[in-house]
Amino acid sequence: MRYTALYMARHNAIVARIKKAASTKFEVLSENQVLGNQGLRPDIVLKKGPNIFVVDVTVPFDNRLAAFEAAAAEKGKYEQLRAELAALHGCEATVVPVIVGALGSWDPANDPFMRTLCSRSYAALMRKLCVSDTISASRDIYIEHISGVRQVRA
User: Fold this and answer.
1) CB 134 within 8 A of CB 104
2) pLDDT in tens, 100-121
3) pTM score > 0.85 for this model?
4) Which of 150, 149, 110, 109 shows the shortest CA–CA distance to 129?
């Protein structure tokens, strides 16, 4: 568990980007809070008009398509929460896994949500920024592992 803080920082950088992009058009219903009867804690729950998006970011180590599919399938645990939110707010709810590989690969399944979240041009920039943040944080984890020296961001 030595690198847990660094893994969490890498994850939170992506969540912060999504939250910032959503701030103009979406209402943030919750962020990293326990919701529902199962005690699940999605990263962000966004609402725009009649739609609710339960967003959960994942950074799997393996960058193959099978790893992305397994990470997306794991988000099935939010199905009951999705149904609860849809009934509570009387609108349609969707679980959105945002998956970025630890070495900087981008899951193409993220693109439809990114286009909903922001303009097409900003979605392309958002993809680059999320990948860049992930690579930078993964580099810090690697450097600390090899050298034993904590990598501090200014």
Assistant:
1) yes
2) 999 989 999 999 999 999 999 9
3) yes
4) 110
